[in-house]
Design goal:
By secondary structure, this protein is α+β, with helices and mostly antiparallel strands. It contains three helices and six strands.
Length: about 160
């Protein structure tokens, strides 16, 4: 089973169960521990889409009491990376290459990050996939947006 299909299959098995989304979120943070700093909760995940929430709490606030810019970057990278992981075909791999961000307004509430991409009909041997991520506050107002440049390449023949 491929890694991308493996992640998606875990989501599909856990999301519908009691505390399944929480468990999936913990498993992702165990694999990539830095994301645990924002205590994410995955809400939806499928090829081309990922939605993740994070609570506004003291540990992610800046000196003026709003959600810190880097916490929002972490939310965007988590949503964009997980979405990319379940979107690229088993024959390919990916890595973030860069990220441009825009802080639209103060993030004063819990947040919801949404990564959404149109799935290419055909995947090149090497290509840059721009992954837009939008972050919304509790009133569904856009507070932050990012575009993550994902470098997607065909796996070498000897790779798993």
């Amino acid at each position: 089973m491929t890694q991308a299909n493996y992640v998606l299959s875990i989501w599909q098995r856990t999301a519908a169960t009691p505390a399944g989304k929480w468990l999936f979120s913990k498993l992702v943070c165990r694999k990539a521990p830095y994301f645990a700093t924002i205590k994410p909760l995955f809400v939806d995940l499928k090829p081309g889409l990922c939605e993740v929430r994070m609570r506004k709490r003291h540990a992610v606030q800046n000196h003026i009491g709003t959600v810190h810019a880097i916490a929002m970057c972490n939310l965007a990278e988590l949503a964009g990376g997980t979405m990319t992981d379940v979107t690229v075909p088993a024959s390919h791999r990916w890595i973030p290459k860069g990220m441009s961000v825009e802080y639209v307004k103060k993030a004063e509430t819990d947040l919801r990050g949404v990564a959404r991409v149109a799935i290419p009909e055909q995947w090149a041997d090497a290509q840059e996939l721009p992954v837009p991520v939008e972050v919304f506050d509790a009133q569904d107002q856009l507070v932050f947006r990012a575009v993550i440049a994902m470098w997607v390449t065909r796996k070498p023949a000897n790779a798993r």
